[in-house]
Each structure stands twice: as structure tokens, then as C-alpha cells.
Amino acid sequence: MNGIRGPFKGKEPELGWSLHMTGGWESQLARAKRWLDRASQARNAIDRYDFLYAFFENAFHLRDWLFDTGKFPQNELDKLFDENEDMRLCRDLANAHKHYSLTRPSQPIPPTEAREYDPGFGNLESDTSLVILSNGKKHDVFELARRILGVWESFIAKSAT
């Protein structure tokens, strides 16, 4: 096979294997963290916004990776999302970014992304913050993202004990 390097050079990989699978679910968790780091360090608002999109999508898709690799059964993952508002927001934001609109939101009123004037303290630009409005609450998008990572790390750590 031309172009294959590493342990599969010169031989066919197993059916269903792909390089992206090499790190298992851990690589997906690391990917989500990298997107949040990129968003936090981006110098312009467009990059911050794009990297946040990528964060929510990758953080939500960690659910599939944990299931597909056998780390957690579907019912435990469903329970995590059913019982945690931040994880429902993650799912809704990921799906809204992927599909444009939500046909089956996690809550009666889908979350809204909004720009808020925040002079000198903006998380998107110096005077603008990106916030998520949901169920009568306002969430700073970066604080929400950090909470989502914390929920995932706590959930995964519980299975190790």
C-alpha cells in the first residue's frame, strides 16, 4: 500500500481500522482540549468563534467515542446527558452548528448564542463576549466549555475506580 507509514507499512491494515482510531477515546478527549486551548489563545474573534464551534462538536462526539470503544454503555452516557444541563447544552450547540437548526433540542427552548457588550472584558473581542442563553440563565461560553471538560473528566475518572 502506497502512503502508509508506521506499523502498517507494507501490509493491509485490519478491516475497519483507520489512523484516527489509534489513540482511542483518549485522543478524542485530547482533541476537544486542544480546540478549547486554540479558542482561548486565538487573537481574533473569527478564529475564537470557529475554534469554539470545533470544541463543542468534538466534546459532544466524545460520547460516541466512549461508546464505540466499549468504555461506557449507552445507558450510562444517556444518563449523563439527561442529568446534566451543561452536557445538554454541549449536545445542542454541537448539533446546531452541524445542522444549522435543531429539530430535537434537549430542552423545550433551544439555547441561544449571543454577543454581549462587555467593555474591556470581552471573551470574543475586547468589548464583546460570547454568551449562551438557556433556561433563563446566561453562560460565559469559555466557562461553559471548561465545565463540560470537567464533567467529562469526572465521569471518566469514576469508571477508573
Features:
161 residues; mainly alpha; three-stranded antiparallel beta sheet; 3 strands; 54% helix; disordered N terminus
Report on this model:
A three-stranded antiparallel sheet has the order 1-2-3. It has helices at about 25-40, 45-70, 75-85, 85-100, 140-160, and strands at about 110-115, 130-135, 135-140. Helices cover about 55% and strands about 10% of the residues. The chain is mostly helical and about 160 residues long. The protein has a domain at about 25-110 and about 150-160. A hairpin with a 2-residue loop joins strand 2 and strand 3.
What is the fold's blueprint, element by element?
Layout: H1 24-41, H2 45-68, H3 74-83, H4 85-99, E1 112-117, E2 128-134, E3 137-140, H5 141-160
Antiparallel strand pairs: 1-2, 2-3
Number of helices: 5
Number of strands: 3
Structure classification: mainly alpha
Radius of gyration: 18 Å
Poorly predicted ranges: 1-9
Shape: globular
Summarize the helix and strand pattern as letters. HHHHEEEH
Please outline the major beta sheet: 3 strands, antiparallel
Strand content: 5-15%
On the 0 to 100 scale, the average pLDDT is 83
